[in-house]
From TrEMBL:
Gene3D superfamilies found in the cross-reference section: Ammonium transporter AmtB like domains (1.10.3430.10)
Keywords tagged on the record: Ammonia transport, Membrane, Transmembrane, Transmembrane helix, Transport
Residue ranges of every copy of the Ammonium transporter AmtB-like domain listed in the record: 21-418
Topology in the lipid bilayer: Multi-pass membrane protein
PROSITE patterns registered for this protein in UniProt: AMMONIUM_TRANSP
Family: Belongs to the ammonia transporter channel (TC 1.A.11.2) family.
Protein name: Ammonium transporter
UniProt xrefs under SUPFAM superfamilies: Ammonium transporter
């Protein structure tokens, strides 16, 4: 067949609608990092709250600068199957304001900033596994090195047009491999190196603020619509709308499934379970939502909700201290969501590829998904463990045992999240004064 000839009239033109949509989606994805900070911050003990918040917030600063200097070039520049490079993108020095991204209708700058928000969020996800025990300076350096050595190559594999996983046909709509498996496997690699918290499996380590957890989960759910629907870079063919719908459907199904598992297994439906189940559904639909139907999204969410709820308990069985269940939710959820594409892909969404339950019922797409999943898992796990080992042997990754016991907030940030002293009046001061007055009346009587 003779090659098609693109006429000038057929060439993509800048779309103000798609550009505005993508800028809004970029802002929504940016919101997910503070939302994650709230989600994680509520799950830790009071003495670690600020450190947990800062472990997410610092990624906003570090990764933004790295992305401008060289990150975007290495992740999305035309290079080879393993890594990219575009000299014009080093420092974003030679990009036209209206230059379009790779045949789409949005400027390169818009695609660049959208992907920046993904790059910021991914290392922040890892922090939840390391709560209570990592030096902030060591964590900041880890973020910079991990983003460079692990995230940038994996993003290129999965999303760049010349990346090996992209060329193979691995479906990852918005980050099941590049974001969630990548972060979850990294978390497992690091905690195997740095070890457990003092008192793991002995002392109570319950969330100090479940309302904060629910706030964070709600904001994550909200921001995830930009994360997922925006990854189609527009909605001229309806695929972005399909992803938006499937994001809501799968998240609802996962939350209900997690709560059902809790009720059967433990006799109660908890707020922490509702929040964790919602996040598990969001994780699982991220790679698959553009390829499955809404009924398929219900199946993906329900499977992820039950499987992730069961997986979070594995840390007690196998003895690895995944503080806030990053491995159980993000790694397991990402694996399931990516592999389930091989079963539930309808061939009517982002591509014509079909899963085992559709089309000719073949296993071709499933094998491709397996290749992407296990390559990213192995690379991230090993590279992250080696990186953590080197930092631990040079700078030292952990705070001292005394600092961990007394509270990492005070040791690393010279602050505490809440002031219960009553100094300066307010609610705490009023309560203290009322108590003192009551005791005085009792003595006088």
């Amino acid at each position: 067949m003779a090659p098609a000839i693109m006429l000038a009239a057929d060439a993509p033109r800048l779309s103000s609608a798609n550009t505005g949509f993508m800028l809004i989606c970029s802002a929504l994805v940016m919101l997910m990092t503070p939302a994650l900070a709230f989600f994680y911050g509520g799950m830790v003990r009071v003495k670690s709250t600020l450190n947990m918040l800062m472990m997410s917030f610092i990624s906003l600063g570090i990764v933004t600068i790295l992305w401008v200097l060289y990150g975007f070039s290495l992740a999305f520049g035309n290079g080879n199957r393993l890594i990219g490079y575009n000299a014009d993108w080093i420092g974003l020095s030679d990009i036209g304001l209206t230059e379009l991204w790779d045949g789409y209708t949005v400027p390169v700058f818009v695609f660049m900033v959208f992907q920046l928000m993904f790059a910021i969020l991914t290392p922040a996800l890892i922090s939840g596994a390391l709560a209570d025990r990592v030096k902030f300076s060591a964590w900041a350096l880890f973020v910079a090195l991990w983003a460079t050595i692990v995230y940038l190559p994996v993003a290129h594999w999965v999303w760049a047009s010349d990346g090996w996983a992209f060329k193979l046909g691995v479906i990852d709509f918005a980050g099941g491999t590049a974001v969630h498996i990548n972060a979850g496997a990294a978390a497992l690699g690091v905690i195997l190196v740095i070890g457990k918290r003092v008192g793991f499996k002995r002392d109570p380590m319950r969330p100090h603020s479940l309302p904060l957890v629910m706030l964070g989960a709600g904001l994550l759910w909200f921001g995830w619509f930009g994360f997922n629907a925006g990854s189609w870079l527009g909605n001229d063919d309806g695929v972005g709308a399909l992803m938006f719908v499937n994001t809501q459907v799968a998240t609802a199904a996962a939350m209900l499934a997690w709560l059902g598992y809790e009720k059967v297994r433990h006799g109660a439906c908890t707020t922490l379970g509702a929040a964790s189940g919602a996040v598990a559904g969001l994780v699982a639909i991220t790679p698959s939502g553009g390829a499955v139907s809404p009924l398929g999204a219900i199946a993906v969410g329900a499977i992820a909700g039950v499987a992730c709820a069961a997986a979070v308990g594995l840390k007690f069985r196998f003895g690895y201290d995944d503080s806030l269940d990053v491995v159980g939710v993000h790694m397991v959820g990402g694996i399931l969501g990516s592999l389930l594409v091989g079963f539930f892909a309808t061939g009517k969404g982002q591509s014509t590829a079909t899963g085992v339950f559709y089309g000719d019922h073949g296993f071709d797409q499933l094998w491709k998904q397996c290749a992407g999943v296990f390559a990213v898992l192995a690379y991230s796990l090993i590279a992250s463990a080696v990186l953590a080992f080197l930092l631990d042997k040079t700078l030292g990754m952990r705070v001292t045992e005394d600092e961990e016991i007394s509270g990492i907030d005070q040791a690393e940030h010279a602050e505490t999240a809440y002031d219960f002293s009553g100094a300066g009046g307010g609610v705490a001061g009023g309560a203290t004064a009322a108590l003192a007055a009551a005791q005085t009346r009792k003595v006088d009587a």
